[in-house]
Design goal:
single chain; alpha/beta; Rossmann fold; four-stranded antiparallel sheet; 10 strands
Length: about 260
C-alpha cells in the first residue's frame, strides 16, 4: 500500500498539489484521473520519487520515502515497475534485450537466469517467442505488452502506469486494461495508473482518485461513479451529452428495479 499525507508541491508561485491525503491499495488498480493541469503527472512523479514534496509525506507501507537514507531509498525503488506513456523501448535493442535491460542494470544474475526471466515475462503478457524481434517490427499494442513485461521483470511490488492506453484503439486498450488488472490482482501489486480513458475508469477502476486544480475532490470505485452527486466527477466522466444520457438511463432503470 502507498499512502500520502497532506502532500503539497509548489513550483515558484504555482501551487500544483494542495494537501493530497489518500491511499493506493495493494491488489487493486488505483486510477488517478482529472483534466489537464489537475496535477496528475506531478503526483505520479512524486509517488515514484522523481519530485520531492514541498510538504507532506509519502509512505510505502511504513517507510517514509523522503526520510530514509540512500540505501533504504534504493531498496524501495528496486520494488518499482514503470510503464511509460510512449513505451520508452530502445529501438536498437530487440524485444528480449529491452525486457532484460533492468536486470542488466540492477542485478547480478547470469545471462541464463536473465533469459529465463525474459521468457517468463513474455509468457505473462501472452507474447512468447518474439524475443529476437525489434520494437519497430511489432504493433503498438504489442509494444505496450513488451513495456508491461519489462516493468514486471524485477517482480515489482509497486507498478506505475502513465497513460497506458495512449495511442491504442479501443479494443486493444481494453485488452491492456485487463492485462494490467490481472497482473495486479494475481501478484498483489499496488498499481497506480494515470489515465484519461473513461473505459478504464468504468472497467477497472477499483480505486479512483479525482484531482481538480491540485485538490483531491473525490475518491471511490467504479460502482460509485454513477450514483455520485459530485459535480466535478460527473462533469469529467460524463462530459459528452451521449454519456450523460447513458448515465441518466442507467439510473432510471436502477431506480425502477428498486
Amino acid at each position: 500500500m502507498i499512502r500520502t499525507e497532506n502532500i503539497t508541491k509548489t513550483f515558484g508561485d504555482n501551487d500544483v498539489l494542495k494537501g493530497i491525503s489518500t491511499e493506493f491499495y495493494a491488489g487493486k488498480p488505483n486510477l488517478i484521473i482529472g483534466s489537464s493541469g489537475a496535477g496528475k503527472t506531478v503526483l505520479l512523479k512524486l509517488l515514484i520519487g522523481l519530485f520531492k514534496p514541498t510538504s507532506g509525506k509519502v509512505y510505502y507501507d511504513d517507510v517514509d520515502l523522503f526520510s530514509v537514507d540512500d540505501d533504504a531509498l534504493r531498496e524501495v525503488r528496486m520494488k518499482l515497475g514503470m510503464l511509460f506513456q510512449g513505451n520508452a523501448l530502445f529501438d536498437s535493442m530487440t524485444v528480449g534485450e529491452n525486457i532484460r535491460f533492468p536486470m542488466d542494470m540492477f542485478t547480478n544474475r547470469t545471462l541464463g537466469e536473465k533469459e529465463k526471466r525474459v521468457d517468463e515475462c513474455l509468457e505473462m503478457v501472452n507474447m512468447e517467442g518474439i524475443n529476437d524481434r525489434f520494437p519497430s517490427e511489432v504493433s503498438g499494442g504489442m509494444q505496450k505488452r513488451v513495456g508491461i513485461a519489462r516493468a514486471m521483470v524485477l517482480e515489482p511490488k509497486y507498478l506505475f502506469c502513465d497513460e497506458p492506453n495512449s495511442g491504442l484503439d479501443p479494443k486493444t486498450a481494453i485488452l491492456i486494461d485487463e492485462l494490467i488488472c490481472d497482473l495486479t490482482n494475481r501478484n498483489n501489486i499496488t498499481t497506480v495508473i494515470n489515465t484519461h480513458d473513461m473505459n478504464s475508469v468504468m472497467g477497472i477502476g477499483d480505486n479512483i482518485v479525482l484531482l481538480k486544480d491540485g485538490h483531491l475532490v473525490w475518491q471511490g470505485d467504479k460502482s460509485q461513479v454513477l450514483e455520485s452527486e459530485e459535480a466535478v466527477l460527473q462533469d469529467f466522466i460524463f462530459a459528452s451529452p451521449f454519456l450523460r444520457r447513458l448515465r441518466e438511463d442507467a439510473l432510471k432503470q436502477r431506480h425502477a428495479h428498486d
